[in-house]
């Protein structure tokens, strides 16, 4: 998987996230991370980047949403995390982060809440989310 491709999708899906390109590319290119991707007709439609028990990035391009791609990527990521001995999944926060948890401005957090995730700091409005 090309970090350039992932970075381009990230910027298309989350243009408002303030994180330097250098930092994002460093995280995406970490050889210890696992990348799960969904392609359609050769195009990267969705991706999940996992490190440890943290999903650093899970995004699906606008034309490919509401077709189960994000759900499938999340399930694959969760299975990988659990298979590596972790008992919880964290979205965003961790040893490093691309986004400070799940961006709430477009309702992305609702996707995760429907799947059992909750704000790790209660109802403080914090972006970080986790699930057992």
Features:
30% helix; alpha+beta; 132 residues
Structure report:
It is a single chain. This protein is an alpha+beta fold. It has four helices and six strands, in the order ααβββαβαββ. The protein has helices at 3-13, 21-28, 69-83, 108-113, and strands at residues 34-40, 43-51, 54-60, 89-91, 118-119, 129-131. It has a six-stranded mixed beta sheet with strand order 1-2-3-4-6-5. Strand 1 and strand 2 form a beta hairpin. The longest helix is centred in the middle third of the chain and has 15 residues, at 69-83.
Provide a brief overview of the structure.
By secondary structure, the chain is α+β, with helices and mostly antiparallel strands.
């Amino acid at each position: 998987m090309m970090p350039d491709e992932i970075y381009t999708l990230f910027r298309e899906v989350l243009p408002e996230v303030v994180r330097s390109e250098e930092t994002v590319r460093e995280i995406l290119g970490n050889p210890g991370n696992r990348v799960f991707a969904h392609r359609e007709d050769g195009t990267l439609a969705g991706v999940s980047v996992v490190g440890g028990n943290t999903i650093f990035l899970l995004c699906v391009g606008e034309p490919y949403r509401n077709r189960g791609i994000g759900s499938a990527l999340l399930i694959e990521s969760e299975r990988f995390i659990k298979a590596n001995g972790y008992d919880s999944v964290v979205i965003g926060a961790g040893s490093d982060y691309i986004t400070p948890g799940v961006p709430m401005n477009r309702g992305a957090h609702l996707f995760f809440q429907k799947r059992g995730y909750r704000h790790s700091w209660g109802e403080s409005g914090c972006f970080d989310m986790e699930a057992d």
